[in-house]
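User: Can you write out an input/output pair for a complex, sequences first and structure second?

Assistant: Here is one pair. Inputs:
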Amino acid sequence: MLTVRDLTVRYGRSVAALHGVDLDVPDDGVLAVLGGNGAGKSTLLRTISGTLRMHRGTVAGGEVRYGNRRIDQLDPAAIVGLGVVGVPEGRQVFARMTVAENLRAGAIGAPASKRAEAQRRVHDLFPVLAERASQRAGLLSGGEQQMLAIGRALMSGPRLLLLDEPSLGLAPRIVQRIGATIREIHEQGTAVVLVEQNAVMALDVSDHAVVLEVGGIALAGTAAELSASEDVQRLYLGGHAESDAAAERQVAEARRQRAGVRRLSRWGG
Amino acid sequence: METFVQLIVNGLGKGAVFALLALGFVIIFKATEVVNFAHGSLVLFGGYLVVTLRESIGWAGAAIVGVVGAGLLALAVERLLLSRSKLADPFSLALLTIGVDVIVTEEIVRRLGVSLPFIGDAWDAQPVQVGGITLFRTHLVALVVATVLITLFFLAFRYSNWGIAMRAQAENKEAAALVGIRSGRVTATAWLVAGLLAGVAVLFIATQDFSGAGLSRGTHSIALAAFPAAILGGLDSTAGAVVGGITVGLVDALATHYVSFAFAKSAVFLVMLVVLVVRPSGLFGTRETIRV
Ligand SMILES: Nc1ncnc2c1ncn2[C@@H]1O[C@H](COP(=O)(O)OP(=O)(O)OP(=O)(O)O)[C@@H](O)[C@H]1O
Ligand SMILES: [Mg+2]
């Protein structure tokens, strides 16, 4: 459905934020993208949704295809028109607009005929959004704002949904709820790319996963394979590394020792 | 008492015109964060079309062409100049609008030469008696027209897809792009609407009643009162633009009467300064001071 090939992305003239990234989102699949701070996860989603330019980033090499169409040079509205819609990191709801207006904004990129059905779907998934319809989005709790951000993206009836750290800053119970919703959205026929630092939730709802590290794919496989992988266990599933830096050194070390089925990341820096 | 009522009505009439200008100014700022210093030249351009065309096509037709022309000039400035320099920051784009302002204004002033034509043919210099009080017809018509236009604007801003897209983009450009809102279109329509409103405003400004002066460089400087109006209302607040416009109109009318014509202009800026000292982002604004 979505293929990323040899993608290299730069911000200004600095070191590449992504270099030589390959990635496949299977039809109707859920792909988890794991990785620590600054690994390039958001950069990847920005590239897919066409908002990279707003951050002064450029695709320096490679390509992104949706179906058999190249989308890495399209503008965000055209990409939404194709059915690929992103939910940005930190929710970014329109805080001064009402919940209903936020959802309406989400439907602007789609034909008006689909709006009623999309709204029903969103209200079914998130009844709270129907209850709070006339409230300002800025007054919602963090979890509700995340639901609104996802609901807003669903209003245009996407076939591929890109989620950037939906669990960020939310209580475990809410994270679980978001996870369940992602599964439900997927079951309704929407493919998902789920960027997460919360690997437990992400691996639980996804079928495939990759680990991004300093701009390259460090590990790739099915969700089950990655859950079982020692590196992932240690780094993301409650291992005992003393600090992120120490943990990353350990991972690098571990990988050097076992270059096998796993693709090595190309250390660019 | 009668004088006072007269003053208030005059102030409101002037204020309504400033509100039209300030509103245009604010929606451009909201959509793009660009302070449009070319607003005065849009006003002049609309007026210039009216005075050159009314002989041949009649005043009403010329007025319509003037309004539409001012809108199209604004659209052209955005499409041909500002949108081409995509990566330029709002500050340099604002400087660009100063360039446009100087070129358009100087050319029109040159073409007008020594003629200073009044343009409010349909209402100018026809005072109305209401209950023994003499009122300027221009101010009354301006009040009605502005009320209608501002109401229409707020209805569209609140309920139409255009309004939703405008507000979404004003609040969060990236999130708006992510839901498929075309920022180029939003920006272009903001400029178009601002230009149309400027074209309407000039029909009241270059009159005996309003300024006692015809279309000239003076019209441009009167239009500049839209800046303090927008700033004191809050540069990013549409409601603030209306309140700011009315405030400027009233201050102007009262200061002219009770102090002097010369003092009125500084009074407007004094009020603006006082408001900014108390509320740095203007009465209804959310952004501290201006970014220019
Ligand atoms: N607008 C920008 N300009 C310059 N560099 C940037 C910009 N955005 C991100 N970067 C750099 O690109 C790299 C990848 O950043 P990115 O935001 O994609 O990481 P991330 O994996 O999403 O991190 P996080 O988990 O903290 O959100 C980082 O080194 C970051 O500093
Ligand atoms: Mg990120």
